[in-house]
Automatic annotation (TrEMBL):
It comes from Neogobius melanostomus. Residues 1-27 are annotated as: Disordered. Belongs to the monovalent cation:proton antiporter 1 (CPA1) transporter (TC 2.A.36) family. Residues 58-507 form the Cation/H+ exchanger transmembrane domain. This is Sodium/hydrogen exchanger. GO terms for biological process: regulation of intracellular pH; sodium ion import across plasma membrane. InterPro entries: Cation/H_exchanger_CPA1, Cation/H_exchanger_TM, NaH_exchanger, NHE-6/7/9. Pfam families: Na_H_Exchanger. It is a multi-pass membrane protein. Keywords: Antiport, Cell membrane, Endosome, Ion transport, Membrane, Sodium, Sodium transport, Transmembrane, Transmembrane helix, Transport. The chain crosses the membrane at residues 48-65, 77-94, 160-177, 189-211, 231-249, 302-324, 336-369, 389-409, 416-435, 455-472, 484-502.
Length: 672
């Protein structure tokens, strides 16, 4: 009976509860949401595949260029060209309409909220602020249903560049720094990086302010553009990134001092430009007008510059020092810990309100000097190769994205007057950085910075990843959008034209190539050469090296002399506690594995009546009365005064500043 009733009265048997309709709607909505999520996942995979294919194509073309010895175009310029081509295809060749519809509602509020809760038929939806489309209510073409969804998908969050792509690039610059030539030219590098960057920033800012004022008079400016905006533009375009030139320098083996000057300046001035731009943004005078000049606000910004830079420097050095591992038996874990500690330095500095670029740079330099010596041989090779690979991929990814954004960025503002003024200002600012500072530095340098070096440094002032990252980080206002568009053109021009003409410029300036830096410096290791170097010329290096070699290296590494040999006898118990057992075991052999600071060739040196024999393994013997019981502090002081020699002492090869201009005296007792 129940079966029959159910068959003949289906409405009664299939009667739904009151909320079944809502449950069905909710289920359908979940199905639609899952379908959209799956489509979005596929779209994101396709977008990432585009960049992977770009990098793959770039690598294959690089191999072809290297095979053919074609140096006119570097890999970064090639990546930009491929990015441009893909951007053209995405912009004009592929059309993917947006899903759903756009609804425009008017709501009068004093400020744009970061999040909005919308009640739709009793259901609350949360929306986050993505971008500002227009300040007027009648210009909303960007949210039309026909907008290309692909262009929106390939646009990355600017924080991706700062937190993911920039750290390995900056860390690799510090970790692979040629410290021997860097410290030889430290004074000049610091002058170019700090004083030169500040001078360039203000000169470019003043010239751009004059350009902006002229644009206002002729009616070419369609938004607000203040003097602080001009200074910010000067700061971001003062960050040089001559990766193209340096790659050609390395391949052609250009003179080491020129390479060190250019590389050291580019490494440090990136950090200076980041801190300088942050200080300019933080400039806040009292009163309603936040763009007027005020002395106290200027001093506050200057103090913030010094505070942020010094704090970031201290944090990076401290993190690099405490990054020690005792996992030598497990090389994979050792490498992983080293990698994570290095990357966390950047994030820690940003989280503490400092600048991660400065922190991770000096962390890399510190780890290369100390932590590297504590790693196992396998981990040493792995870390160098790992960061070199990450640097290569991140740098080419950024340059590919630069070419892509020329067509995919939706808020470009190209103004011919601003572009021409920017190119002239960048050229004049670079000249004001190089030539006056070189003249002043040559007054106190024994090795003069020759005019052809100055012309090459002027020509090699390329802009790259750091300039792009600083420009794209904030594109909310009309002024920042114009800066970003102009910055892209400056990067394109310098990488393609200046980078492509490096070989021709070297030939035109008659700069030596094919110079082996190790051999070039080893010829200065002359035992019987007369020490005519002034004692004061290396006083800073002397103080630092004595302290580092005698105290820091034994504490932080397993190389260097034990503290029991350098500290006073009264500190014997403390010295034994702080010195690692490996340092006592390695006292008689060369343990400093820093390839930038040691010689690996067989050397037989005659130094007066002292003979020192050393081979590639670092084992050495000595003969002579003066060397029998080790070298006294007076002897060391005499050797430091003769700052053009390398002396083997306590199993560690000490390297001091060398003078390439000294006449080479051939000693029959010396052979390489």
């Amino acid at each position: 009976q129940k079966t029959a009733d159910s068959f003949f009265h289906p409405r009664n048997s299939l009667k739904k509860p009151p909320n079944s309709a809502e449950e069905e709607d909710s289920a359908m909505e979940n199905i639609v949401t899952e379908k959209k999520a799956e489509e979005s996942h596929r779209q994101d995979s396709a977008d990432l595949l585009i960049f992977i294919l770009l990098l793959t194509l770039t690598i294959l073309t690089i191999w072809l260029f290297k095979h053919r010895r074609f140096r006119f175009l570097h890999e970064t310029g090639l990546a930009m060209i491929y990015g441009l081509l893909v951007g053209v295809v995405l912009r004009y060749g592929i059309h993917m309409p947006r899903d759903g519809t756009s609804v425009m509602l008017n709501c009068h509020v004093n400020a744009s909220p970061a999040t909005v809760l919308v009640n739709v038929s009793g259901k609350f939806y949360e929306y986050t602020l993505k971008r500002v489309l227009s300040s007027s209510g009648n210009k909303v073409d960007d949210v039309s249903d026909n907008e290309n969804e692909m262009l929106r998908k390939v646009t990355f969050d600017p924080e991706v560049f700062f937190n993911i792509l920039l750290p390995p690039i900056i860390f690799h610059a510090g970790y692979s720094l040629k410290r021997r030539h860097f410290f030889r030219n430290m004074g000049s590098i610091l002058a170019y990086a700090f004083l030169g960057t500040v001078v360039s920033c203000f000169i470019i800012g003043l010239l751009m302010y004059g350009t902006v004022t002229l644009m206002k008079h002729v009616g070419q400016l369609h938004g607000e553009f203040f003097f602080t905006d001009c200074l910010f533009f000067g700061a971001i375009v003062s960050a040089t990134d001559p990766v193209t030139v340096l790659a050609i320098f390395h391949e052609l083996q250009v003179e080491p001092d020129l390479y060190a000057l250019l590389f050291g300046e580019s490494v440090l001035n990136d950090a200076v430009a980041v801190v300088l731009s942050s200080s300019i943004v933080a400039y806040q005078p009292t009163g309603d007008n936040s763009h007027t000049f005020e002395g106290m606000a200027l001093l506050k910004s200057f103090g913030m510059f010094l505070g942020i830079f010094s704090g970031s420097f201290a944090l990076g050095v401290a993190t690099g020092i405490v990054t020690f591992t005792k996992l030598r038996d497990f090389q994979l874990l050792e490498t992983a810990l080293f990698f994570l500690m290095s990357w966390s330095t950047f994030l820690l500095a940003e989280a503490c309100g400092f600048t991660g670029v400065v922190a991770v740079l000096f962390c890399g330099i510190t780890q290369a000097h100390y932590t590297y010596n504590n790693l196992s041989r396998e981990s040493q090779d792995r870390t160098k190769q790992l960061f070199e690979l990450l640097n290569f991929l991140a740098e080419n990814f950024i340059f590919s994205y630069m070419g892509l954004t020329l067509f995919t960025f939706r808020n470009h503002v190209f103004n011919p007057m601003f572009i021409v003024g920017a190119f002239l200002a960048v050229f004049i600012g670079r000249a004001a950085n190089i030539y006056p500072l070189s003249f002043l530095l040559n007054l106190g340098r024994r090795h003069k910075i020759r005019s052809n070096f100055q012309h090459m440094m002027m020509f090699a002032g390329l802009r790259g990843a750091m300039t792009f990252a600083l420009a794209i980080r904030d594109t909310a206002t009309y002024a920042r959008q114009m800066m970003f568009s102009t910055t892209l053109l400056i990067v394109f021009f310098t990488v393609w034209i200046c980078g492509g003409g490096t070989t021709q410029m070297l030939s035109c300036q008659r700069i030596r190539v094919g110079v082996d830096s190790d051999q070039d410096n080893s010829v200065s290791v002359i035992a019987s050469v007369k020490c005519n170097t002034k004692h004061e010329s290396a006083w800073l290096f002397r103080i630092w090296y004595n302290f580092d070699h005698n105290y820091l290296k034994p504490i932080l590494t397993h190389s260097g002399p034990p503290l029991t040999a350098t500290l006073p006898p009264c500190c014997g118990p403390l010295a034994r506690i702080l010195t690692s057992p490996q340092a006592f075991e390695n006292e008689g052999q060369l343990k400093d594995d820093d390839s930038d600071l040691i010689l690996t060739d067989d050397i037989n040196l005659a130094y007066g009546d002292i003979t020192v024999n050393t081979d590639g393994s670092g084992v050495h013997t000595s003969s002579g009365a003066g060397f029998a019981s080790g070298m006294s502090s007076e002897d060391l002081d005499r050797e430091l005064t003769c700052g053009d020699n390398e002396v083997v002492m306590r199993g560690t090869c000490l390297v001091f500043p060398m003078d390439d201009s000294e006449p080479t005296l051939k000693d029959p007792h010396m052979r390489f």
